[in-house]
Amino acid sequence: MQIDILTIFPDMFTGPFSESILKRAQAKGQVTLNVHDLRQWASDAHHTTDDRPYGGGPGMVMLVEPIDKAIKSIKLPDVKTKILVTAASGKSFTQSKAREYKELDQLIIVAGHYEGIDQRVIDHLADESISIGNYVLTGGELPAMVIADAITRLIPGVLGDPESIVDESHSQEGYLEYPHYTRPETYNGWEVPKTLLSGNHAVIKQWRLDQSSKK
How far is Cα 173 from Cα 164, in angstroms, rounded to an integer? Predict the structure, then answer.
């Protein structure tokens, strides 16, 4: 799978995309993560990607033209592709969305910034506008990282143990994972539940189901 991100702050992705599971997934060829500087598609000498909003108001709005040119330049032909815009006003990003996007050949994410993106991008170029929560961030770069991370870990072979994504929070609608414990059995007087030390797998399974239900 290929994930392409359009941003005016490409350096923000260096750390998250060059460490841990995302780094290994790229090294193994399981996912391709491309971060593109939107300014290279600007049409003026100053590489302008934003302008004042029509109708007045605070802040700046990202221009439609560089985004249109960029999408046309990076979109792969004849493959399953979806184009997302990150925006606080978008649809909620969920685990089911991550599973849906994982089936694509290419995902293009336009990272919004400033007051937002010219609405014509959302209306005519993008397939969906996506939010990662009911709050406002300084830009769409962090949401783009979150979306890329959530999708990548679902790609077969990326996680060391394929069972890791089977029984976890949100693997089913409304399901929250049970608590986990490891050594030592007692720390500062805080003890691991005796059930988990019993060796009785049927009892342990039921305990975990009960704990998930309580959550």
Answer: 17
Helices (H) and strands (E) in the chain, counts: 7, 10
Look up residue 139 and give its amino acid: G
Helix or strand run (H / E) with residue 107: strand 106-111
175: CB partners within 8 A, 6+ apart:
169, 212
Query: How, if at all, do strands 61-62 and 116-117 pair?
Result: parallel
pLDDT, tens digit (0-9, with 9 covering 90-100), for 74-93: 999 999 999 999 999 999 99
Q: Give the distance, in angstroms, between the CA of residue 27 and the centroid of all CA atoms in the same chain.
A: 19
> Does the domain spanning 178-214 belong to CATH 2.60.120.590?
no
- Read off the pTM: 0.84
Question: Hey, is 117 helix, strand or coil?
Answer: strand
- Quickly count: other Cβ atoms within 10 Å of residue 206's Cβ: 12
Name the architecture of domain 2-152: 3-Layer(aba) Sandwich (3.40)
Tell me the one-letter amino acid at 15. Answer: G
